[in-house]
Amino acid sequence: MNIKQILEKIITLLNQNNIEQATLKAKILLSNCLNISKEQLIVYDNKQVEENKLKEINSKIEQLIKGKPIQYITNKQEFMGMDFYVDENVLIPQPDTEILVENAIELLKNNYINSKNNVKVLDLCTGSGCIAISLLKLMQEQINNLKNNLCKSITVTSTDISDNALLVAKQNAKKNNIENNIKFINSNMFENIKDKFHLIVSNPPYIETQEIKFLSKEVQNEPKLALDGGIDGLKFYKIIAEESYKYLEENGYIIVEIGYNQKEDVINLFKKTKKYTNIKCKKDLANNDRIIIAKKV
Ligand SMILES: C[S@@+](CC[C@H](N)C(=O)[O-])C[C@H]1O[C@@H](n2cnc3c(N)ncnc32)[C@H](O)[C@@H]1O
């Protein structure tokens, strides 16, 4: 069979099994198996595919039909324009989370780049490391491009309770050439954290335990540890609101990602402690409430 025939076969199979975005997923899967770009699938559509490749393709189609996310099959996801390795040990980085990184960069640029020698950031619940690594890489570019800024370096501490997630995050730090300025710590929330930071960022698990079984088959293939936010989905925000200020420098900031319906609850958790000011919510591109930003009093 040639590339064109195989591509058509995959699209038909995925459509028959009600897989969303069948054409796109078929192209991603086939280009990944053949190690060529999606565009090259068209250019070389007459090329014959070897028998052993066909076996691999069939096995990956089966996995996709069973509900395995395409990103776990190709071990790839793009985030903030960078490539990340992903597997079943980590949440697949979501485009919605980019708003957190964009706001973190703006905040660091406006508040610290001209006033601090070394800026310290903590990423709690780092998973694949997508927040920590993209933030660090983009801030390093800023620092190198700015003349006369005081800031000489930025260091990030990334934590997770899962050793397997931390291994993935370390791999991603290496892949993006920033392993010298990032430290990884296995920690149940703040348990093993000793330092203080100018900024804490976190995308903690925030799905209500009871809701997980209603999520799509694909999302249910992601680690429960990365999804389960306890009975009310707020378990980790309670810890973050109660503990963060102890790990923030004076006037330090915290930014957390939230679920679309958690704005009031999370703002109230921060307000209740009386340790934060300027508490505000920002929306994502789909106009859903997505992040809460607060400043240590
Ligand atoms: C929603 S995922 C976020 C991953 C990544 N930051 C992102 O935005 O794609 C939450 C992460 O929290 C970690 N986690 C769960 N419970 C934790 C705990 N008690 N302490 C620290 N990390 C925890 C999970 O292993 C998972 O990697």
Describe the structure in your own words.
This protein is α/β, with parallel strands linked by helices. Helix 11 packs parallel to helix 12 (263-273). The mean pLDDT is 96. The protein has helices spanning 3-16, 22-34, 38-43, 51-65, 70-74, 98-111, 130-145, 163-175, 217-220, 224-227, 235-243, 263-273; strands at 77-79, 82-84, 118-124, 153-160, 182-186, 197-202, 248-257, 276-283, 289-296. The N and C termini lie far apart (66 Å). The strands form two sheets. It has a seven-stranded mixed sheet with strand order 5-4-3-6-7-9-8, sandwiched between helices. The protein binds S-adenosylmethionine.
Strand content is: 15-25%
Which distinct ligands sit in these coordinates? S-adenosylmethionine
- The total count of helices amounts to 12
Low-confidence stretches: none
Quaternary structure of the protein = single chain
What is the strand arrangement across the widest sheet? Answer: 5-4-3-6-7-9-8
Biggest sheet layout: 7 strands, mixed
SSE order, one letter for each helix or strand: HHHHHEEHEHEHEEHHHEHEE
CATH architecture of the largest domain: 3-Layer(aba) Sandwich
Task: Name the CATH class of the largest domain.
Answer: Alpha Beta
- Based on CA atoms alone, the radius of gyration comes out at 21 Å
Count of the separate structural domains: 2
